[in-house]
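Dear all,

This email documents one entry for the complex benchmark we are building for the journal club exercise. For each entry we list the sequence lines for every component of the assembly. Then comes the predicted three-dimensional structure of the complex as a token string, followed by one or two observations. Please use this as the template for your own entries, and keep the labels exactly as they appear.
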Amino acid sequence: MRILVIEDDAATADYIAKGLREAGHVVQLARTGKEGMMLAAGESWDVIVTDRMLPGPDGLTILRALRASGISTPVLVLTALGEVERRVEGLDAGADDYLAKPFAFSELRARIDALGRRPAVSQDPVMLRVGDIEMDLLRRVVRRAGQPVELLPTEMRLLEYMLRRPGQVLTKTMLLEGVWDLNFDPSTNLVEVHVSRLRRKLAQEGQPGPIQTVRGAGYILGERG
Amino acid sequence: MSFLPRLLRSFALRTALLTAAAVLGISALGLGFGWLRSSAALQDALDAEIRQQADELLREWRFGGAAALMLSVELRTRERAPGVLLVQLRAPSGAVFAGAAPLAAAPAGLQGFATVATTDAEGPLRALGIALPDGFRLIVAARMRLVLDTAQTLASTLLAAGGLAVLLALVFGLLTAWRLEGRLRAVSGAAEAVMQGDMARRLPLSGAADEFDRLAGTVNALLARLEAVLEGMKQVTVDVAHDLRGPLSRLRQRLESALAQPRDAAADAALLEAALEELDTVLATFAALLRIAQLEAGPALASGQAPVVNLSATVATLAEAYQVAAEEAGRTLAAEVAPDQRVHGDQALLRQMLSNLLDNALAHGGEHVSVTLRPGPVLEVADDGPGIPAEERPRVLRRFYRLDRSRGTPGSGLGLALVAAVARLHGAVPVLSDAEPGLRVTVDLSGARAS
């Protein structure tokens, strides 16, 4: 993917660029808000990552300017620790995702991957299918290899979230945000518990489990793409 | 600065001087008018007496003619104490026919009342001239000294009274200025002491419950809030130093001793992973601290301004997620949620508050945890664990406060502090009570209720 990273802190910018390049992406760095704004508007990108606080126009200003000029490139806003309360503000300004610094690189990577794959127009099919798992969204019925699987509403939401993002690494915080709308990590291991429940319910004799654990990163449903 | 120059510049003194000037002006007007009225009244009385005498003399003229009048005038002039009432009869030629000498200065054709100067030292006369037939003219006059003296006495009395009033106004003003200055000096002295760092200092109250006391009370409340905020900040600094130093020094030791070992890929990887985990804990603690500090420093959400949050749905969803976690841990979580409970508030923070309460109940409680949302709405989370002794309860809402028995278990000691901060934001205070056995935390959110 072609990724624009707008970040004024040299160490952080280099760290992000290096990691993303190693993952096979093309990365362009911008060190000021002005430079970032020109690059963001002037070229075509798959994903834009921008710091919130920047010299010159800040991240949210760039974001608003892009959205106002009809550019819908997915944007991930990075924010300093403790600015969590501003999350809503960022999302309101048109950010597609929000990540607080410092972050694990695997978290950033997973979120960028998810943004890059986001379909341009979200089509809402009635049936979600990954491998031999299928979910009927209207009747809220789940089957694995034709066998019905009984799920609680919260497990249903978790599976739906995963089915909509097949082959992507889903981190714990992405699941907490996406499934339970929690933008913090509670000390109770909600994600682990629910994933393991879901795994048990989806398990079938002689078949490999559909949900894989990606060490140090998260979970993945279906073949990694 | 010494007292006098400061006093001279004082608002109170200026007010006193203005008051004195106003008193002076009003006195001058009032007294002047009074003096004029009194003088006029005195003169009217004198004129009436002169007129009465003149009428008597005119009767003599009518009965006895010029000769009788002349005789009567002569008689009166001699009998009467000179200087009180003077009578003169003038011939048509203007020559004095009979009567007192001091009236010589009266004009020849005097008709009606007039004030006439005299040749002697007794002062002016009040004279009435009446024309008689055949060209004769009768002049009746009286000394004005009595009138003038009375007016003079009256004027000096009035002036003295006015002066006294002005003097009183000045003295009273100075006294007020002095008292005002004293009270304001006490206030600014206390404010300076606070500026110097004595945050416990408060403005003195006189006990009179007057406007000064009310102002001082308001300022004292402000100072108390300021002191609490500063105390909180100081506490955070101390807490951060105390509670982050532990994990950070452990991390440092771990990295240092690993560096001293020969390089081994597998061991290094394991060590770095453990180090990252430790660092993440520190960062999480740090984030929680910042969040609490932000919440505590900010104002409470204005009632009715914040968006409406469906608390029933929020609690139900979260309770369901935690039910699964509780079951996996071999515990039970019962949820009882009244429908359609709404509050004005911050949904993300309310979710975190409930999540912290449930985390806490699952970490420290017993077999059974219950979450209840009653109409009000009142949120309640209870467990059947060992609970918290009554004397410890107020302290567990503070940052980093941990019961001795939970020191070994994971947790930052910030969970309930954040609960308290979020509750405060919504105008509530978490109440800890005995669930017999166990701990019950009640948050009454009815203050943020949305219809």
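Observations: Chain B has three domains: 3-149, 211-297, 308-448. Chain B touches chain A at residues 273, 276, 280, 283-284, 286-287, 290-291, 294, 317-318, 320-322, 324-325, 328, 347-348, 351-352, 355-356, 358-359, 362-363, 410-411, 415 (CB under 8 Å).
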